[in-house]
Design a protein that fits this description.
A: 114 residues; alpha/beta; 6 helices; 44% helix; B: 172 residues; 5-stranded mixed sheet; two-stranded antiparallel sheet; 5 helices; 7 strands; globular
Chain lengths: 114, 172
Amino acid sequence: MLVLARMFERGGISTILVTMMPTWAEKYGVPRAVGVEFPFGHPLGLPGETQLQMTVIHDALKVLQEATEPNTIVHLDHPWPGDETQWRRQWQPTGASPLIAKYLDQIRAMRPRG
Amino acid sequence: MPIDSYKWLPYSLAAWMQKYYQGPEEKSSTPFTPLAKPLSETRFALLTTGGLYLKEQQEPFDVAREGLEPEWGDPSFRVIPTDTLSGEIAVAHTHYNPVDAEEDFNILLPLHRFHELKQSGEIGSLAPSAYSVMGYQGHPMPDYTQWREKYGPEMLEQMKSEGVEALLLTPA
């Protein structure tokens, strides 16, 4: 997504990214972004929650309008309107992605010992 | 306070991603196109990497091939008309649970919210085409060749032909 944002920006379009991974945007570079601490698949919130969707969009448009230089990345502090413990699972696919399935042993090896 | 990009990931998966993921680093050369007009006069398009496609009208992203080749991700794109109605979108993406996006695609592609912004005069207009790709493009270094050389330029050309001036990007 960072690649596409930079490509379109270079092509003369002003871009604004809403990301759950602002750390990647900060590391690899993006014209403008807002970060949300929301579960994957939910950059604008929950289904039917139009008010929260619109709030995040308004925040994004504000950064789009006000940014004066590239790598402008603003962290938003909207709390996720769901139970944290439940949502650590709920955003995940019902079955592991092919990538995760293939690398499961390597991933498990990352657990701290003891 | 900075938000935690890894908050929702299991510890081992977060550690694995931080150790192995390689991004496309170009921070020193990040481009910048200043917004030329006030929002109320600006023409918008939307793009998501959520793997959305038009149910029964478009081919899903090729998650079958990804199943056989886990280090590969489908680089193609779908054009989603901005008058798409609730219930007309399905999702092909193996890396998140698409149930909520299929219930209300506005959480990933906020077409209805942007129609409302146009109605209220907050934005100038919304172009007739929105865009959807499937964000997973391979591991450990994603292969962006097709995005850079083929599909990205095709999307940009269509945006230009529709007079797009600003773009909201919403990854999954």
